Each structure stands twice: as C-alpha cells, then as structure tokens.
From TrEMBL:
The name this protein goes by in its record: Alpha/beta hydrolase
Organism: Caldimonas brevitalea
Stored InterPro entries: AB_hydrolase_1, AB_hydrolase_fold, AB_hydrolase_sf
AB hydrolase-1 domain ranges (all copies): 24-256
A GO CC term attached to the entry: membrane
GO molecular function, one term: hydrolase activity
Sorted UniProt keywords: Hydrolase
SUPFAM superfamilies recorded: alpha/beta-Hydrolases
Transmembrane parts of this sequence: none
Length: 268
C-alpha cells in the first residue's frame, strides 16, 4: 500500500501508467476515495501516468486531529504530494471536493500545473449551507447509514440511479457510504464551510476544463458556468445523463474530454 508522508499526514496513493507520459493527478469527492476514478485509471492509465490518492481523514490515508478538514489544508496536501512525486507540470483533476482543491491549486500554485480539470464543483461558498449543515450535524451524531438515500440522491444523477446495468456499481458505493460512520462529518464540515475562490481566478494562468453533469443535484450547471466565466482560460462542458459524480457516471465522455485537454495543453 504506497503512502507518502507529506504536510504532516500519510497519504495513500495509486500510481499507474507509463512513467514518461503526461501525468494526471485525480482528487476524489467527499464520501468517496481514490476508487471513484477506477474508470479513468483503467482507460487513461494506458496512455497517461494516472495518480489517484485519498485525502487526509478519508479512504486509506491518515487521520488528523482536525475538527474540520478545511479545503486550504487539502490543497496544501495536494501540492506537497505533487512535489514529493516529482510531478510538477502535471494536470490535476478533481470531482466536487476534489474540484475545490483543484481550483485552489490553479489559483495559488500555478507553477505546479499545466492544466486543471474541475468536475461537479463550485468556486463559491456553499449555497445550500443550511440544508447541508443539518445533514452534516446529523451524520456527526448518527453516522451515514440513516441518511444513505439522501446521500445517493446528492451524489448521483437520475440516469445512473435508474440504469439496471450499473446496479452492481451503485450497490458498491451505497455500501461504502453506509460504512463511513460519524467521523466523515469532520471532512464534510470543512467542505460546506469553505470560502469561495472565484475572485482568485481572474488572473489564473492555468487552462481550466470545467465539466458539469446536467443532472447534478448538489451543484447545478450554473455554478460551473460561474467558474468558467471567472477564469480567463476556461472551457465549459455539460455532460448529458450525468449527475454530481460525473467522472464515475459517464466515464467514456469524461475520459475523452480529459485526454483531449491534456493533449492540447501538454506543451503549455
């Protein structure tokens, strides 16, 4: 189980693909771990160096003493991981929480990135703080299991939930989220109490690919439009039949977009 001790924490990571290929670092959503990018590792890992990691206090990574796992700390962790693996000049992609990390890296550490992919995310402070805040506090008390139907609705689009061919995959993630327990509330608190970063993107030199799922129940497409409008070098793609976990739900479409973006910006 490969781990790196960076920024005071042990981070679990998976490193696949040709070592001389362009590097793509993937940062997962809240309630998930590096496995949410299995489709990307399997396909893109044939032609790109794909590095997936678990954020602190989640997955197989170390647990900290933080009462609220804030996005600035996660961005510092990601930067330290990139530097420790010698991946300066990589492409960084994040879904939801991973997108919050990606935007902070693009704005604050542009020298580390050739391109940034932001999926199912927002550049603003949480717009549903009351609703999500109540859910987080309930999870802190009761764990995730009583709220699994709400979590599945938030994290996945209608098409994915209704597709009989994806039943096994849905059940895997349902069981995963049910088993997270009350401790995940620390990470969730940091997610929903984040500061906005749109005002940091105005002079961001890093090209951005902003991908939104048209069925996103957590962060509607308009929030992705705001990211694309705030950054000078941004492209918005809206993926049909996809919800909040767009990279997992529509991997073929997303993989093709990511690979084209990496190819077009590799020489930046």
């Amino acid at each position: 189980m490969p781990t790196l001790h960076v920024n005071g924490i042990d981070l679990h990571y998976e490193d696949q693909g040709p070592r001389d290929a362009p590097a793509l670092v993937l940062s997962h959503s809240l309630f998930f771990d590096h496995r949410m990018f299995q489709h990307q590792a399997l396909e893109l890992g044939q032609r790109l160096r794909v590095v997936r990691y678990d954020d602190r206090d989640q997955g197989r990574s170390g647990r900290s003493a933080l009462a609220s796992v804030d996005m600035d700390t996660l961005a510092d962790d990601a930067a330290a991981l990139i530097e420790a693996l010698g991946l300066q000049g990589c492409h960084f992609a994040g879904n939801s929480m991973g997108g919050f990390v990606a935007l902070r890296l693009a704005a604050r550490r542009p020298e580390l990135l050739r391109g940034c992919i932001v999926m199912g995310s927002s550049g603003e402070a949480e717009h549903r703080l009351d609703e999500f805040g109540s859910l987080v506090e309930a999870i802190r008390t009761e764990g995730t299991e009583p709220f699994i139907d709400s979590l599945m609705y938030i994290m996945f689009g209608d098409s994915f939930v209704a597709d009989p061919a994806r039943a096994q995959e849905r059940e895997f993630w349902r069981r995963h989220m049910m088993g997270l327990g009350p401790d995940i509330a620390r990470a969730a608190h940091g997610v929903i109490h984040r500061a906005g970063v749109l005002d940091e993107l105005g002079d961001c030199p890093v090209p951005l690919l902003v991908i939104a799922g048209e069925q996103d129940h957590a962060y509607e497409v308009e929030l992705s439009r705001h990211i694309a409008a705030a950054a000078p070098r941004a492209e918005l793609v809206v993926v049909p039949h996809a919800g909040h976990s767009v990279a997992l739900e529509q991997p073929g479409v997303v993989n093709a977009r990511i690979e084209a973006f990496v190819r077009d910006t590799a020489g930046r």
